[in-house]
């Protein structure tokens, strides 16, 4: 859930206390509305939260002044509530207004201004691709990311620890942007700097550092720097494993990406270790089919494509101790037999995390999968 308040270094409890201390003149009006807003939010009453957050922000402006910290934070809260209420265009406009207010009060590169940019981007990153591209959020997200990347070096009023923290948080949010607003080479330079600051502040094996290095690995992979990406994913996976943080999502993600990168490079033996590592970390759920770590899409039989013929193949198979697909059998075929040949060829290249029992990998029971062959319209 979103934080009610802006992404500042001041905790919400301090804000509540300051509001109580400084609200003599209009205590009945402001305090009642503010407390009602908090209650509505805690009760997940989104409609009431929108109305009350807007009213609390407006009353705060009258009581504390339009440029007070309390007023800015309550404006940010109102924008957050609009997102929760699915009023995305209105939320985007209020976020833009919040940004301009922070820049006017604190300056373009003050730590609180850049943290606000980062907090807004974090909130917007929770929205689906479909939502983003049907609203004003579509232009706001890359604008936020670009501003952060171009201005973060000039951050003001930040300690070294705050500086490192800001870099790591910006890295986490910017790497999720679908359409990067800067060249990948610029992004990678930024990510390298972020890792360097994290290592200096927290050491190479700290969780914050490892998470930041994971973002660097993703950037390197996107740029096509396969060897460097592998090196960084290995550092992340090894670091978390050495810290006994086997279930950390970035540990699992790093092992998974290494499976793909090694398979794409024809290094199946190297991929096996990471298949087994994931299998050991994540017990099989007997109530659902396991998902492949690496999959190859089947080639569409040319003869059937020329005839505009579609098909479907159900295959049975087992996953061995190395995560390889074995004992493939055709259960049923709809359409020409060439669909079955293509499906078997593709499935034989898939990789899974093997099942573990008593700490050792074992062959799986028989699994089934359906591969559909459909032509685009």
TrEMBL record:
Any GO BP annotation: protein transport
Alphabetically ordered keywords of this record: Cell inner membrane, Cell membrane, Membrane, Protein transport, Signal, Transmembrane, Transmembrane helix, Transport
Record bears the keyword Nucleus: no
Compartment(s): Cell inner membrane
Main location: membrane
Residues in TonB C-terminal domain copies: 285-377
Signal peptide residues on this chain, from the entry's feature table: 1-27
Assigned GO CC terms: plasma membrane
Family as reported in the entry's similarity comment: Belongs to the TonB family.
PANTHER family reported in the protein's UniProt record: PROTEIN TONB, PROTEIN TONB-RELATED
Protein name from the UniProt record: Energy transducer TonB
Organism: Salinimonas sediminis
């Amino acid at each position: 859930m979103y934080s009610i308040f802006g992404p500042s270094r001041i905790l919400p409890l301090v804000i509540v206390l300051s509001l109580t201390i400084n609200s003599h003149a209009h205590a009945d009006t402001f305090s009642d509305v503010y407390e009602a807003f908090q209650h509505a939010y805690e009760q997940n009453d989104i409609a009431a939260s929108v109305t009350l957050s807007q009213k609390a922000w407006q009353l705060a402006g009258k009581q504390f002044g339009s440029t007070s910290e309390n007023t800015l934070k309550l404006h940010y809260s109102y924008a957050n509530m609009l997102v929760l209420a699915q009023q995305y265009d209105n939320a985007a406009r209020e976020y833009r207004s919040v940004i301009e207010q922070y820049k006017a009060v604190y300056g373009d590169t003050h730590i609180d201004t850049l943290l606000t940019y980062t907090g807004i981007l974090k909130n917007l990153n929770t929205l689906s691709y479909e939502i983003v591209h049907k609203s004003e959020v579509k232009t706001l997200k890359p604008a936020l990311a670009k501003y952060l990347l171009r201005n973060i070096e000039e951050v003001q009023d930040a300690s070294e620890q705050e500086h490192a923290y800001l870099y790591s948080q910006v890295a986490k949010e910017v790497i999720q942007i679908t359409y990067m607003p800067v060249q990948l080479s610029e992004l990678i330079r930024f990510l390298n700097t972020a890792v360097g600051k994290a290592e200096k502040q927290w050491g190479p094996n700290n969780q914050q550092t490892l998470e930041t290095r994971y973002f660097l690995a993703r950037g390197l992979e996107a740029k096509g720097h396969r060897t460097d990406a592998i090196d960084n994913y290995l550092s992340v996976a090894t670091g978390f494993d050495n810290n006994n943080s086997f279930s950390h999502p970035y540990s699992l993600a790093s092992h998974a990406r290494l499976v793909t990168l090694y398979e794409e490079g024809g290094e199946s033996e190297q991929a096996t270790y990471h298949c087994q590592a994931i299998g050991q970390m994540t017990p099989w759920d007997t109530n659902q089919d396991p998902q492949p770590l690496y999959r190859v899409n089947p080639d569409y039989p040319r003869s059937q494509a020329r005839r505009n013929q579609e098909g479907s193949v159900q295959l049975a198979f087992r996953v061995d101790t190395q995560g390889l697909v074995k004992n493939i059998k055709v259960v049923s075929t709809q359409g020409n037999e060439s669909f079955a040949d293509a499906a078997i060829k593709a499935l034989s290249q898939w990789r899974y995390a093997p099942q573990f029992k008593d700490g050792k990998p074992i062959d799986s029971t028989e699994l089934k999968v359906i591969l559909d062959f459909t032509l685009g319209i």
